Amino acid sequence: MQNDKFAPPIGFSSGPPQPGQPQQGYPAQYYGQPQPQVTPAMNYGGPPPAPPPPPYEPPTRVPPSREGCFARGRRNRPQGNTLSSASFIFMSGGLNIAWSMGFRGPIIYTSGKHNYIAWFIGGIIGALVSCFLTNKLAKKYIMLIASALVSIGGLVIACTKNNGDATVAGCYLDGIANGLVFAPFLALAGEVSVADMRGKIATNMEQIGYNTGVLLQIIYTSTWSYSYYNTNNFTAENLKGVFSAIFGLFALLMGVLLTIESPVQLLANNDEQGAIDSLRRLQKPATLTDETYDQLAEHKRYLAHNKDLSVGQSISQALPTFVRLAYLRALNAMSLSSFVALTLAFSAYLNYGLYSAEGWYLFFAFFRFIGACIPAFGVDSLGRKKLLLFGLLLSCSMGFAIGVQYNYTHGFHGVTILIVVFAFFSGLAFTGTSAYLSEAYPLGVKQHFLAFTFIVEMLVFMIITLVDFNLYHGGSQFFYAIGSLYLVGFIVGCVSLPETRLMTLRGAQELFNRVKNTQLN
To answer: Which of 90, 138, 248, 506 could form a disulfide with 150 if both were Cys (CB 3.0 to 4.6 A apart)?
Structure first.
């Protein structure tokens, strides 16, 4: 007790605690660790400090939310709102896809193949331009530019009468807008959405947007009253321009008021405070929570994982994924091609007459739309892969069945009904590709490969529109080819497509890097 040359053990003291020393009986809380930095905000009721990112963890599925679907949707509604601008742009694109398919009503001006493929050419141009804007222009400004192009293109068509050149110009502007926004939209959809809402948000905004436009175009062109004697009347084509102008205006307003920049992009630009604020605004109520910082930490892991990849490594990882997803999107284009619409019209006319044929056009549009809605709301609960494979298999069966029944001598008996059923299952098959595209490619080349995937889809639309099929004898070969290609897609999907339901972006990317993915859950 008389030896004062040595300090007493930790937790024991021969006297009262000195100022600035820890209380008796409590070891230092940060022994062997760096001292945390205390900021004024911590002392005066400000937001809690961001905890340091946790160490690397292998990618796993996040646990499903315990909230009900309505509560979860209400809490994450800002994530869908921030993408609503692109949804209106895609609706305008759906109008033009249906118009190019042949659902346009009688036109008086001279038209040719160029009129019908102008929108697809514009889409390719816009997609190429978006590659050069990657990380150079904020996604919000890209949305606003595309919205303005849609409105201008719609006004050009709405304000002219029987003018083929004006129609081509409007189609080019709308196509450029859709191509310009496709890649930034899907990249943003993956980065702003929580894992258990990513599929629903991506599919609702992209596939439901396009199919809504197709449905709307077929409805009003099939029920429009035409007059061949008064060429100054307001035509169905003018109405398409009005719809496009309105959709562009809504997209512009939504882009200005609701679009929130990607927290991943903000982190990549070393703006961590901006990323935290973005994550806060992407949920309701817009407050900082532990979940906010968990998302921030996962985004940091995602960036760190991709930062270690060189450009060559990113491209080599993206190419196998590109082949799989571009193939699926090409099959999607075949299901909405001009020859499918021509076969529907021809078979409906032969079997049911001219006036009843218009009702079958409506059935085709409604069944395609309903087929797209089912996976759009079940892609995060049932999964992407099961719905896609189920739709592919039944679409393949319908393709072969149409090829067998495609016989002019027997009056195309049953072909009309089979095409309507084919539309339903093809919508079921390809809606989930939006979710795959939002999470598949490495970050460094993500927008470029998304744009290339869109270009492949547009090229398939163009090729089928430009080819002159023999309606009496060549149609069966076309549908046999569809059935065969869908069967290949089903086999490849069974073997190599991953199930990314409830996966983080980092985990989904690593799953796509594997060539073999046979799991269904």
So the answer is: 248
